[in-house]
Amino acid sequence: MSNSMDEMLIPPNAKRGRNSETETEIEDNKDRLSDLHDCILLHILSFLSAKYAVRTCMLSKRWKDLWKRLPNLILLSSDFDTFKFFTKFVSTILTRRDGKTALHTLEFERVGSIQSPLIKRIVNYAVSRNVQRLGIDVEFDMQHLLPCIFTCHTLTSLKLIVYPKGYSRGSTLLPESLNLPALTTLHLGKFTFCSSGNNRADPFSAFKRLKSLIIDRCDLKDAETLYISSLTLVSLALLDPPSQTFYKVELSTPCLHRLACTGSPSLYLDDSGLSSVQEVDIDIDMYSYSPVPPLILLCWLQGFVNVRSLTVSTNTLQVLSLVPGLLKYKLPSLTNMKRLKIKREPLSEDLKMIKIVMINREREATESRKEAAKLRKEADLLWKNRRTLTAPLPDGIVDFLIQNSPSAEVEIIDCLC
Question: Which fold has domain 102-256?
Answer without folding.
Answer: 3.80.10
